[in-house]
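ok trying again, last paste got cut off:
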Amino acid sequence: MNIRKLLKKILEGSHNIRFSEAVALAEAFGFKLDRVSGSHHIFIRVGFPELVNLQEVDGKAKPYQIRQLLKIIEKYNLKLEVEK
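nice, full thing came through this time. structure:
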């Protein structure tokens, strides 16, 4: 799925987001996978103060973690870096 279409889908309130889509969204905003601790996939952005934590449950991303990612994007006015 196109990142812009995915972002629109999330902003419209969809809670049916695949884990792979959540990862693609985080990476499109410049986050890179730093480590995996159990089911927690921790993403960082160089020179950035906050981490992004995503978990996969039955192939889906947890809705509250998607909301946290969106809040970070909005708080720091992040722009898309990668267009997939």
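cool. The chain has a mean pLDDT of 93. The longest strand covers residues 32-37.
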